[in-house]
């Protein structure tokens, strides 16, 4: 049978190998941590620029909306102006028609009054002739 060898004492070389294994593991862990930190930083930078682009787009939409509101207000005011102009033109036309109608009625009244006066004079003359 084989005889068990007594456990040997650790030499300097054994301690060196343990230290090297621990250091390799520590470097691997450090490398992994740095990659994770770099990814996290890259995501943060990417999010920053996405947020910045979204804010710019939102500001552009807000400006476009503001311009639309201004344009709608201007269109409303222009529509109101032309409606008022149309009312004024209609009022002036009605005044002209009314003036022309009044002139025609005045002429007709004048004609009727003149005719009545003429008949009255003729009647008075006939009555004077008959009375004389």
UniProtKB/TrEMBL annotation:
Keyword Manganese: no
Domain HSA: 1-72
GO biological process, one term: chromatin remodeling
Main location: nucleus
InterPro entries associated with the record: HSA_dom (IPR014012), INO80/SWR1_helicase (IPR050520)
Gene Ontology MF term list: ATP binding; ATP hydrolysis activity; DNA binding; helicase activity; histone binding
Keywords from the named record: ATP-binding, Helicase, Hydrolase, Nucleotide-binding
Keyword field contains Cell cycle: no
GO cellular component labels: Swr1 complex
Compartments it resides in: Nucleus
Stored Pfam families: HSA
Protein origin, superkingdom: Eukaryota
Protein name (database record): HSA domain-containing protein
Source organism phylogeny: Eukaryota, Metazoa, Ecdysozoa, Arthropoda, Hexapoda
């Amino acid at each position: 049978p084989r005889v068990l060898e007594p456990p040997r004492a650790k030499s300097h070389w054994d301690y060196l190998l343990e230290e090297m294994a621990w250091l390799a593991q520590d470097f691997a862990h450090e490398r992994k941590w740095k990659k994770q930190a770099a990814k996290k930083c890259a995501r943060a930078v990417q999010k920053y620029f996405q947020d910045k682009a979204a804010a710019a787009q939102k500001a552009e939409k807000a400006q476009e909306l503001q311009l639309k509101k201004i344009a709608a207000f201007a269109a409303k005011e222009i529509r109101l102006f032309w409606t008022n102009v149309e009312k004024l033109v209609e009022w002036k036309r009605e005044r002209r028609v009314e003036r022309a109608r009044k002139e025609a009625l005045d002429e007709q009244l004048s004609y009727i009054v003149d005719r009545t006066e003429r008949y009255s004079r003729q009647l008075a003359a006939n009555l004077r002739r008959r009375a004389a």
